[in-house]
Amino acid sequence: MTWRAVVVDDEALARERLSTLLAAWPAVQLVAECRDGVEAVDAVTTLSPDLLFLDVQMPELDGFGVLRALDGHEPLPDTVFVTAYDRYALQAFEVHALDYLLKPFTRRRFGEAMEHVLARLGQRESGSAPGVAGLIRSLGEEHPERVAVRTTRGVEFVKVAEVAWVEAEGNYVKLHTPGGVFLVRRTLKAFAGQLDPRRFVQVHRSALVNVDRIARLEPWFHGEFVVIMDDGTRLASSRTYSAALRRLAG
Hints:
The protein is an alpha/beta fold. The chain contains 8 helices and 15 strands. It has helices at residues 12-22, 37-47, 63-70, 89-94, 107-126, 132-136, 188-192, 242-248; strands at residues 3-8, 28-34, 51-54, 78-83, 99-102, 146-151, 154-159, 165-169, 172-177, 180-184, 200-204, 207-210, 214-219, 225-229, 234-236. The relative contact order is 0.09.
């Protein structure tokens, strides 16, 4: 099957590079190149592409404005943001973008994004993945399913369900996952406010744990616990936060 794509960027060289890179992927047909957000809205409503490569900062209408303008249009394309600014990564995550290409990106990084894109498009075709229309309507979702993190490879998206525990470190938090430890610039209090309290509980002033990753609770002094995670990590609870653990223990 051939998927139809639209490239949106106010820089001609950026559109040309994306067009050249896409030529190496025969499963994707480039059907339009747009210079701004207004042209992008017109192209999507007219051509109904499957995939949208979307710049953020553009004249007339920015990338997020394009998605807002298209809300309610069916079918909506899956979106890959392409921008020189990493500060929009969290907002891109909130509208459930498939990927976030940070300029300048390599051919290899583009290939990784395309593999992700084609897998998602295949799922959507089979009916096993929700369309972007429903995902965009969840903008501002109270408990996000992924977290945008900056790494040496660019901006990556970590599934919240894969986070075993969260550790405070000043104005940052460390996300401990099977794939490694990721640093996010946010206080523990602010980060905890975004998490589902049924899934994550605070056990100490500097630690949150994913209840699905707790292997066992060992009683300690004064009603406190030692929390044993399924990877063997041992975390001591404090009296202030032990009530939630007692509820878990029945």
